[in-house]
Structures are given as structure tokens and as C-alpha cells.
């Protein structure tokens, strides 16, 4: 999704909010880098749509708090031969 940066930032924000998605998942879905997603939702979205920014920020804070758990589960599955 290449186009106007502001539109992409809003679309990323809506996607993250609707799907409770991680930055990595949003980046994969939109075909951009994790850095781009982070910059769009952490900096650009703040000025474009502050209410959406606050909602997205809450989702990303929950994801950040849970990432060590997801990482542990992935490591466990790896060594158990699961996928």
C-alpha cells in the first residue's frame, strides 16, 4: 500500500485497532517495514487523528506488555517441534 503517507497512517491505525494487531503483523499486511508502521502510528497519527492515536497506543502498549509471553511460547513450540 504505497500512497499518501497520511492515508496509510490512518489505515494502519484502523487495522491495528480493529484486529488488535502487532506492529509486525500490520507491517506484513501492508507490505511495509516495522519501522514505517511504528513511525506512522507513533508520530504521524498523533497529529493527523489524535483520538485514533490514543486508541492505537493502548493496543500497542498491551502488545508490548505481552510480547515476552508470546516469545516464550514461540521458543517452547520451536523446541517441541511444533509450528
Characterise this structure:
It is built from 4 helices and no strands. By secondary structure, it is mainly alpha-helical. The longest helix is centred in the C-terminal third of the chain and has 31 residues, at 50-80. The radius of gyration is 14 Å and the shape is elongated.
Kindly summarize this structure in a few lines.
With 83 residues, the protein is mostly helical. The protein has four helices and no strands.
Task: List its salient traits.
83 residues, elongated, mainly alpha, 4 helices
What secondary-structure arrangement, pairings included, does this model have?
Layout: H1 5-19, H2 23-30, H3 34-48, H4 50-80
Helix pairs in contact: 1-3, 1-4, 2-3, 3-4
Number of strands: 0
> What's the mean pLDDT score?
89
Enumerate the spans where pLDDT stays under 50 for 5 or more consecutive residues.
none
Helix content: over 70%
Question: What sort of overall outline do the alpha carbons produce when their principal axes are compared?
Answer: elongated
Count up the helices. 4
Distance between the termini: 29 Å
Pairing-aware structural class of the strands and helices? Answer: mainly alpha
Strand fraction band?
under 5%
Taking Cα atoms only, what radius of gyration do you get, to the nearest Å? 14 Å
SSE string: HHHH
Number of domains: 1
Q: Mind describing the biggest β-sheet?
A: none
Amino acid at each position: 500500500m504505497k500512497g499518501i503517507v497520511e492515508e496509510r497512517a490512518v489505515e494502519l491505525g484502523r487495522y491495528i485497532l480493529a484486529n488488535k494487531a502487532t506492529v509486525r503483523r500490520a507491517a506484513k499486511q501492508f507490505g511495509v517495514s516495522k519501522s514505517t508502521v511504528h513511525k506512522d502510528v507513533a508520530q504521524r497519527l498523533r497529529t493527523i487523528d489524535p483520538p485514533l492515536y490514543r486508541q492505537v497506543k493502548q493496543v500497542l502498549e498491551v502488545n508490548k506488555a505481552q510480547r515476552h509471553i508470546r516469545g516464550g511460547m514461540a521458543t517452547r513450540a520451536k523446541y517441541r517441534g511444533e509450528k
